[in-house]
Amino acid sequence: MKYRRLGKSELKVSCPGFGGIPITTISPNAAEKCIGAALDLGINFIDTARAYKDSEYKIGKALKSLPIKRENIILATKALPGDIKDLRSSLEESLKNLQTDYIDLFQLHNISNQEKLDHSMELTEEMENFKKQGKIRHIGVTVHGVDWVNTVIQTGIFETVMVALNFIVKEPVEVVLPLARKLDIGVIAMKPMAGGEIDNPALAFKFFLDLEDVVPVVGINKPEHIVEIAEIFEKTLVVTEEDIREMERIRRETGEIFCRRCGYCTPCPQGVDIVSLNVFPSIIKRYPPLQMAKAMEKSLQSYQGCVDCGECEQKCPYELAIRDMMKRSYNTYLRLMKTGA
């Protein structure tokens, strides 16, 4: 297993790390098998969040059951920025769920606008108190989009930043990594397989070979999947000209319908949950379609409020055909609710 330094936090984390979202769809015993397989391979970095349903609980239960010392695991979780009372409550709940006395990397989740960043600044003193109390070791942040990331990390509060990064969404390589390197901010890559849009693991992770200061986090719900991905990193891979052409082909074709989750298209004047509608097709590639349709029902039904004004498309920096994408997602939702498949 390869390990990478996570910026000025000095954490030495496995590459890849283990992402905690997919285990929400499986039983605690099945989740324990996935986590056990990851640990057996030498993976020591586990990332989750309070917002990921029962993910923290399943991880905590597994780590208590498996023969692993707590000091050999680097646990990361996330809390939404709110007031100090909410932050304290979120941290205590995470500690309880994960069955641990401390969080190695405590991340403020989805700092997507100035209001949330202002909240984060107000929470700085309290997070430093958490450090002094030994409840957290390091402070990080997660951000969707590209342009906004540099504003967030320039605050000096955060030791790590998590961004969406893959060979489809590769803008952070040029926009984010230079400043992160200058400030010694550790970079964690979410969605290394573009939320299921990339179905060739070897090709997906070849993209990260030259990004030696980036740590991709992989979500899996079957032990054999983490074994396959870990083996890719263990091999001596070479990015060929054919690989580059294939990456560009997929990026060119998928980029026209791939939502980056940046949120620039929001808010919708009619209350349509644009981002949820646009990411629904990629979500049902990874998780049980009908289950996700029911879980996202309120967001998907918001499409009924669309008046086809096109304002979202005018604001999209990637020039996506958002109205067509939302319509397809809504029709897929209707089909799933009617037929179950």
Radius of gyration: 20 Å
Q: Main β-sheet, in a few words?
A: 8 strands, parallel, barrel
Low-confidence stretches at least 5 residues in length (pLDDT < 50)? none
Overall geometry comes to globular
Going by helix content, strand content and strand pairing, the class is: alpha/beta
Return the domain count: 2
The helix/strand order is EEEHEHEHEHHEHEHHEHEHHHHHHH
Q: What CATH architecture of the largest domain do you see?
A: Alpha-Beta Barrel
- How many individual helices? 16
Strand order, biggest sheet?
A: 3-4-5-6-7-8-9-10
CATH class of the largest domain: Alpha Beta
Which terms would index this structure?
TIM Barrel; two-stranded antiparallel ribbon; alpha/beta; 16 helices; 46% helix; 341 residues; 10 strands
Describe the overall structure.
With 341 residues, the protein is α/β, with parallel strands linked by helices. The protein folds into 2 domains: 2-245, Alpha-Beta Barrel (TIM Barrel); 274-339. Helices cover 46% and strands 14% of the residues. It contains 16 helices and 10 strands. An 8-stranded parallel β-barrel has the order 3-4-5-6-7-8-9-10, surrounded by 4 helices. Helix 12 packs antiparallel against helix 13. The protein is globular, with a radius of gyration of 20 Å.
